[in-house]
Amino acid sequence: MGAKIYVGGLPYSTTEQQLSDLFAAHGAVASARIITDKFTGQSRGFGFVEMSSDAEAQAAITALNGTQLGGRTLTVNEARPQEPRSGGGGRAGFAGGRG
User: Fewer Cβ neighbours under 10 Å: the N or C end of the chain?
Assistant: First the structure.
């Protein structure tokens, strides 16, 4: 398996195909995904690219971090594993009922 790369600072109009094409100049792209808001479907301005090898991923990070795309500066680095989310929220500790 290759290395997963975080790409931040993407213009909101960027497509997954454009993201894939940008990284393809630096090696084989296994996947490219733009993260979108689950309610509106609007891009959140960041995504992830998976490269076929660690060497290609490192080359892409070195070449693209700090570059401009659509007037925005890209932040490109190795993706960290997603931290576990704490569940629940909201009404914890709510006793309810009538007094």
Answer: C
Q: Which two tokens stand for residue 46?
A: 């960041």
DSSP state of 24: H
Query: What is d(CA 16, CA 36) in angstroms, rounded to the nearest whole number?
Result: 11
Higher pLDDT, 82 or 10: 10
Q: Can you tell me the mean pLDDT for 26-45?
A: 96
The string of DSSP codes covering 45-67 is: EEEEEEESSHHHHHHHHHHHTT-
> If you classify domain 4-78 with CATH, what class do you get?
alpha beta
* Of residues 79, 73, 74, the one with CA closest to residue 58: 79
Torsion sign, CA atoms 33, 27, 68, 7: positive
Amino acid at 53: S
